[in-house]
Every structure is written in structure tokens, then in C-alpha cells.
Amino acid sequence: MAAPVSQPPVAARASSRFLPRGLGAVSESSPASLRFSVSRRRRAARLEVKAAGNVFGNYFQVATYGESHGGGVGCVISGCPPRIPLTEADMQMELDRRRPGQSRITTPRKETDTCKILSGTHEGLTTGTPIHVFVPNTDQRGGDYSEMSKAYRPSHADATYDFKYGVRAVQGGGRSSARETIGRVAAGALAKKILKLKSGVEILAFVSKVHQVVLPEDAVDYETVTMEQIESNIVRCPNPEYAEKMIAAIDKVRVRGDSIGGVVTCIARNVPRGLGSPVFDKLEAELAKAMLSLPASKGFEIGSGFAGTDFTGSEHNDEFYMDEAGNVRTRTNRSGGVQGGISNGEIIYFNVAFKPTATIGKKQNTVSREHEDVELLARGRHDPCVVPRAVPMVESMAALVLMNQLMAHIAQCEMFPLNLALQEPVGSASSVSELAPNLS
């Protein structure tokens, strides 16, 4: 009589239904990293869970690290081409635009945000190896967060971090703090420089709305607006008249301990045709993901956006024509420079909406970590409106997207000779040599 076949415990049999085909039940002696026995094979397969949500990009890859009140923040950039001229000053200029304490309408926290490049360069040139950028935190005030260690700030990440991890860094919001974006801006500065060198790409963002103060679309010429115009005032709106109205709106809520939101508009000029891919990796989809990953962002629209639903097809379509240089162009640009998920050579423009800052100096009803109804009066130093400092963040994320798409396009579509009747190269060696002799 045959011996009876042993069966795994009921719990193990049930759990095995949810494993990939070929994987058995979890062993009782399995470590925390989860070791599964594999049926039909003699060797054990080990499944590892990667730390999610801290790395952006596939080719020009950026991993950010650090928290608001930790020892510091920064990034590691992988995939940067070698022999690109790079110094800390290149990154510092952009970090200075992002740093706190710039003016009365930003958080009063005083940080110089001085960056240090710890690896990946030699004698002022990138080496092609990972670039490590570090910025120390120097103005922490952990005591300001004693109340927030016990109660959840409404509309903040406090509660959801607890729901997900069961633990959180309370001071400054920890990883959910906008100080995390320092790494993005440092990496974005490098991406912007490479895009300019290779293809002449220019990326500019500005504040187009603060609360109910809306900059008319025809008030800014996307072809000619400059960084100097944008940086000429503390709210970063290129129109002086509307800039004053925006500043007044922020001042009005600031003195009351409240906050307001707004919109940042971003434009990218001289973007090569052909960036982006069909279906899941459309250029506008990549831009949307990048922008909605920013703290406090709540909305994204490109080209005509939601307003495009008010048009008929005949009104909305961008008609093609041949310009004097023999290039295919569009007479209008309601597509926002992207069609079918691929850049068409026109100016890319989009809007990013940011909510009012969640941490405010007004008493609010909330719930404690012990699940009791309580009132919270938050302390700390916070922006009454995030959009003035969000401008360089939006530019940086746009640069990281375009940098990844540029590298992907060159790898796939310029490996072999182009069909010059339909295609054009994204940049020429001669133009790069003129801009950066070290690259030749």
C-alpha cells in the first residue's frame, strides 16, 4: 500500500494560490526577505523587494535621499554622459532659486543649501560614473513639531505614512518634505545643461496663477520670455502688473497664518522632434508623472488641456504647413508640442496646479495617532504659497524627463543612419564642439 502523500498546512496551501506560477508556499523558516521554494526545480529562488519610489528615470537615472530634519539631503545621478563640464556652481545657481528664506512670501527657514559634489567628476568634467551630490541640513527646529508628533495635519502625508509604514519621521514632515526636491533640482541643473549643449533646449517655468489672480494667456510670449523677466520679482511671474497682485494675495493670507495655491506654467523651446514613445511611454504621460510626483501638486494639463473640450475638431486641430526653411510646422499649437505621445518640434507647454500649503497657523480639527478627535494648531516654518519656489522644481523635472527621452531616442532611432527625407538628428557634433570644447 502506497504511503500517504503529506500535505502542506491549510494556511500554506491558501497562500500559495497568490504566488507566481511555479512557486510553492512560504517556508516557516523563511527570512524577512522572503525565500520561496520552487516546484519542479531543486534550487531555491529568492524574491527581493526593491525600495520603491526613490528613483526617477531609466537612462539618466536619479535617486534622491534624505529627510527634512536629518543630516542632509541629496541625490545620486547614474547614466550621465562623460566629459560634460560640471562644477558645483552649475547646480548651486538652481538650488539658490529653490532654497527657503528667499523673501517674505516663502518659508522663513534659513538654509544656504550649499551643495557638494562627492563623486563622478574629475578636473571639472563628468567621468560617466555615478555623481553624488550632498546638501547638509543646518537649520532644524525639531521642537516645532511636538504637537504634530501626536496629531495628523489635515491634508498632509502624516496619516498616510503611518497607514503605510507604521512609523514616520515627524520633524519637518520627514521624507514628504519639499526638501527632498533638492536632489531633483541638482540633477535637473545637469540635465538642463546637457540638453542645451546637445540640442539647444531651453526650459523655463513661471507662476501663472496665485489663488484667484490669473495671468492672461496672451500676457506672456512663449517665444521670447526670458529667465531675467521671470526672476525680476519674488513671485516669479514675468508680468510686473500681475506679479504685484499675486504678491499682495500671498501677503494677505500670510499674516493670517493661512495659505493659498496656484499654477506654474512651463515651456520647453527647441525640443527635438521624435522624443517620446507610443502608448504607455507617451511624452505627455512621462511629464504628467514627473509633475504629479512633486510635493503639493494636484493637477497637470498640456497644450489646450481641459479647455480643449470646448472646441470642435475643426477648431482644435493644428494645421500643418511648410515654413520658409522647408520644415513641417503647425500654424497653431493647441497640442502643446506633443502629438501621438511624440514631440513635433513646436514649443512644449503645460500647467501644473499646486494646492494650498497643508501646514497652516490656524486651529483645525483632526485625529491623533491614538485615534481620538482633537484640535491642532501647527507650528513650524512653512510657505504661505508654494508656487514661487516650485518654479525651479517644475523646470528640473521637465529637464529630467526630456533628458531620459533624448537618450532613449538616440539609443533606438539614431543607432543606424537616419531616413533624412523624414528624420533629422537631435544634435550635431559641430554645434556641441562649439559650446563645449572639452567634448570634442
From TrEMBL:
Q: Which cofactor does it need?
A: FMNH2
Question: Cellular component per GO?
Answer: cytosol
| Reaction catalysis annotation | 5-O-(1-carboxyvinyl)-3-phosphoshikimate = chorismate + phosphate
Name the InterPro entries for this protein: Chorismate_synth (IPR000453), Chorismate_synth_AroC_sf (IPR035904), Chorismate_synthase_CS (IPR020541)
The record's section on CDD domains has:
Chorismate_synthase (cd07304)
Query: Bound how, and how many: what does the cofactor note say?
Result: Reduced FMN (FMNH(2)).
Alphabetized GO MF terms: chorismate synthase activity; FMN binding
Q: Which family does it belong to?
A: Belongs to the chorismate synthase family.
The UniProt keyword set, sorted, is:
Amino-acid biosynthesis, Aromatic amino acid biosynthesis, Lyase
Its name, as the record gives it, is Chorismate synthase
Q: Native species of this protein?
A: Eragrostis curvula
Give, as in the UniProt entry, the pathway in which the protein acts: Metabolic intermediate biosynthesis; chorismate biosynthesis; chorismate from D-erythrose 4-phosphate and phosphoenolpyruvate: step 7/7
* Swiss-Prot/TrEMBL GO biological process terms: amino acid biosynthetic process; aromatic amino acid family biosynthetic process; chorismate biosynthetic process
Its EC number(s): 4.2.3.5
Q: What is the purpose of this protein?
A: Catalyzes the last common step of the biosynthesis of aromatic amino acids, produced via the shikimic acid pathway.
What Gene3D superfamilies does the record point to? Chorismate synthase AroC
